[in-house]
Amino acid sequence: MKTFNSLAEALQYHPKCPICFSELEIYDDKHHTVYFDYQSYNHLCYELIDDDLVLINKDNDSIDFIVRNNLGISYDQSFCIIKPECKSIKGDCLFSYSILCYFDLKNNKLKNISLCAEQFSIENDNEKLCVINNLYDRDHTEYSVDVFSSAMLVEKLPLINLNFKNIKETLTKVEKMVLFI
Predict the structure, then answer these.
(1) Which has the closest alpha carbon to 61: 42, 79, 38?
(2) 112 and 158 in one domain?
């Protein structure tokens, strides 16, 4: 699994969508928009389960814990998944990647920042929407066709290299692998 030395490095892994070159918008694992601190624009604000907040400084990976509900929950270590997603102007591009970050709340730092997943969609020759999802933390690729159908089937494949310069080639490679399962 690819690891990063800092959150800033991880966010520069794909500064724009590698397929349509649109801007990426950042979400957390609950699919809330992770917003930037309005005063400095260098902090990500991440909401924990009990509505407490963790402010992550993108410049130095330091974190600040903000208690909002005072429920008495003790966090020794927690984690977040930050998900930059394509914000395509046309709305027809579905690309995202997920960054797994662990909080060390005792030392107020991020640690173990890694690439968790990359996902994109593409239409195949039959004009069906296909989704290819590399799950690096699980060491496999998932492939699904016609994701809006109730009969959608997800195929689990060995992990493949994604070629964003030629996604049709990647799709062809995956479809050939599916034939031999």
Answers:
(1) 42
(2) no
